[in-house]
Recover the amino acids of this structure.
């Protein structure tokens, strides 16, 4: 049995034709059989099975990624997708949420213990790992229990992070 490798590449909806072609060419140069270049919001809609429903409908797709926040309006008509409009903020990303959450906890820890985490790089990195885990957990939970053993000067840290904390 011969194994064929096919490459399906997702791109942001705002990518122009020249950028799409460059992406396709890069795959071909790399020896990949480029099957298709698909807009990320279209892929999200397919992942939710929206292509299987009959009739015409409009959907709004929000994409908060590691580097951008995009919103796309798509129309689907009997399995055929068309991106009607897209917009976004290339400066709002998941890392922005991480940073705000880090600041929240650094202030909270200073208030509770008198310790300034910013003076201990190891402690900052430990907290950052937990904040990133919490962010991922928020996709399925409304609150997350964060626990870090010996965060700073042998002090254990335990706190429940809620969506309300993050919003504020």
């Amino acid at each position: 049995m011969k194994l064929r490798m096919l490459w399906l590449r997702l791109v942001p909806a705002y990518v122009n034709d020249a950028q799409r072609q460059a992406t396709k060419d890069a795959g071909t140069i790399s020896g990949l059989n480029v099957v298709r270049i698909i807009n990320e919001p279209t892929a999200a809609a397919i992942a939710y099975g929206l292509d299987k429903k009959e009739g015409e409908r409009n959907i709004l797709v929000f994409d908060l990624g590691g580097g951008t926040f995009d919103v796309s309006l798509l129309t689907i008509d009997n399995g055929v997708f068309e991106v009607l409009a897209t917009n976004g903020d290339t400066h709002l990303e998941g890392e922005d949420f991480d940073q705000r959450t880090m600041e929240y906890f650094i202030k909270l820890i200073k208030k509770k213990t008198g310790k300034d985490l910013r003076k201990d790089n190891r402690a900052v990195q430990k907290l950052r790992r937990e904040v990133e885990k919490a962010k991922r957990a928020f996709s399925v939970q409304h609150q997350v229990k964060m626990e870090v053993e010996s965060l700073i000067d042998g002090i254990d840290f335990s706190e429940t992070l809620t969506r309300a904390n993050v919003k504020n």
About this structure: The longest strand covers residues 80-89.
